[in-house]
Amino acid sequence: QVNAVVFSPDEKHFATCSEDGSVRVWSVSSIELVVQFQVLSQACGCVCWSPSSCKGGARVAAGYSDGTLRIFQIASSEMEMKLHPHDGVAVTAIQYSATGHVILSAGGDGLVAVSSTVNGATIRVIRDHRGASITTIQCVNQHCQTLGLEGNELWLAASTDRRVSVWAADWLKDKCDLLDWLTFPAPLFLGGDAPPPSLAAFAPTDPSLVVYTGYGVEKELSFYSLVRKQIIKKITLPHWVSCLSLSRKSQLVAVGSQERVLKLINWSSGKCQDFTRHSDSLQTCHFSPSGTLLFTVAFNEILLWDVH
Description:
The protein has 308 residues and is mainly β. The protein has a domain at 1-84: Thrombin, subunit H (Beta Barrel). It is built from no helices and 27 strands. The radius of gyration is 18 Å and the shape is globular. Residues 1-307 form the WDR90 4th beta-propeller domain. Keywords: Repeat, WD repeat. Pfam families: WDR90_beta-prop_4th. InterPro entries: Beta-prop_WDR90_4th, Quinoprotein_ADH-like_sf, WD40/YVTN_repeat-like_dom_sf, WD40_rpt, WDR55/POC1.
């Protein structure tokens, strides 16, 4: 089973990670395997790329079921660092900070660890989501003074209890302050499996806008303004969402569902289009940085889409 697929910042490569403990880096143009990093007897649950501003070449960081993180150097095909910030709890989300100075990772216990990319030390543990598994971490460049706090980047975490925390940070100054805390109500879940995941992302064209979807009273996308401190828009959906990605291009949102449907929505006009090419429920979708390509994943099946 493929757990994640992410584009490199330059869109020349993409990385996948799987239940079998492998991290694979592929060429986008040829869809050929460039390098594979294998960890035995561990599942790899999440993977991310270093930002292009990082010195020393491209790296991928991956989180594993035993609570470890590993940083792999692409050029040398070697593991650069192994970190232990999660004490045996499976890592559920991982992301380089927007500047690349730290890695944020989260476990099934809801703890978010901030680790140095220089020496691997855990420099901060954020416990606000404790008790609920983290589904999403995202970091973006943003001057936070416009939102009333110091910092040069925003980051968010979403957890399975339908809560989203938004933070302003300047990691070189060891600053990290809570900017906003969103809680989305929901009725008791009576389904057989786990409820749909809680998913959140910054709007690429306006990071002061947070897009959220998850189990709730209605099946919908919510658009929350960090400036106005309120939901300013909702889009009704036919299915619960299993994965979410936002494009830099033409205000598109991709949402996948357990009903095997990929839906592309223009969130300014509300127009949408459905695609039904997958043979299993969608678990991951990911736009390229430019928004011209889109990956979708259903179990072990990966589709690459051209977005016009």
